[in-house]
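Appendix C reproduces, verbatim, an entry submitted by the partner laboratory led by Prof. M.T., so that reviewers can inspect both the input and the predicted structure.
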Amino acid sequence: MRLKEEVVLIRYYNDSFICFFRAGIDDFKKQCLINRIDAVESLRMKQIQEWCHCH
């Protein structure tokens, strides 16, 4: 059984991060990332990369 995935593209200057989230499983993680970005929290490229790798 294959889970449905949601894709989030994050553009940071001339770089892009593509994050894949499993629908129904990673909803909380995806919302945490969106909230950090929406809060205009100062995120550096290295922090985004680490967050995507760890979650």
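Strands lie at 5-12, 15-22. Additional entries are available on request from the coordinating office.
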